[in-house]
Amino acid sequence: MSIGQAFLGLLESQPRHGYDLKRAYDERFGSDRPLAYGQVYSTLSRLLKHGLVTVDSVEPGEGPDRKRYAITQAGVTDVEQWLASPEKPEPYLQNTLYMKVILALLTGRPAAELLDTQRAEHLRLMRELTRRKTGGDLADQLICDHALFHLEADLRWLELTAARLDDLARKVRA
């Protein structure tokens, strides 16, 4: 996800201080990984440099002056273009799990155990996400559904790979 575009979208509704942007971002998108303050201000600095935001006002405080940021017309155009463009699907053609299976086979290690361990971890995470989804609001439900669908696809791949493991081992070792 582009943090810069998220900030621009959040700023469209009203100008905000960096602290307020961080809080709004974390509430909407960062429940699992909240933004660091350094990331907030480096992103705002980059947006300011590119003319996508401007400093709307400066308020003196106990520490450094508090800047309130507002989106510019260029920022509105940028976020509109970003929202209109589709995300590239990520097919995971060279993922780490595939690499581990091949390396286990190449080195004579038990690839079936690796697949079983990974399956157990996927199932554990699916149970956790299902619990979170059950008690969550609509945003939590949608985010959890997205993750669960990906995990289900991974589980299908794990089952298929386990079923083809003997054939794969012969090909890898040949």
Automatic annotation (TrEMBL):
Native source organism of the sequence: Dactylosporangium maewongense
Protein name listed in UniProt: PadR family transcriptional regulator
All residue ranges annotated as the Transcription regulator PadR N-terminal domain in the record: 8-78
Pfam families recorded: PadR (PF03551)
